[in-house]
Amino acid sequence: MPFYNGCNPLALEAFAAGAVGWCTAAPNLIADLNIALYKAILGNELRSARELFYRQLPLLDFILKGGLPATIKAGLR
């Protein structure tokens, strides 16, 4: 059954478990990294996917801890 991940810190594990998508606000700030991660997953390039995920994890954590609307708004300024 297809499923989507909605938890930023679990995105890599969710994709590895078969998630077909990721509900996140992160592309508003780091779209290129998010797209590259998704393409790496689709291409079964797990080493690359892991590297891309951990490059963005500090920002993903910051977004969650700072409150989604406020951090995205600040990031877009």
From TrEMBL:
Pfam families: DHDPS. GO terms for molecular function: lyase activity. Keywords: Lyase. It comes from the Bacteria. This is Dihydrodipicolinate synthase.
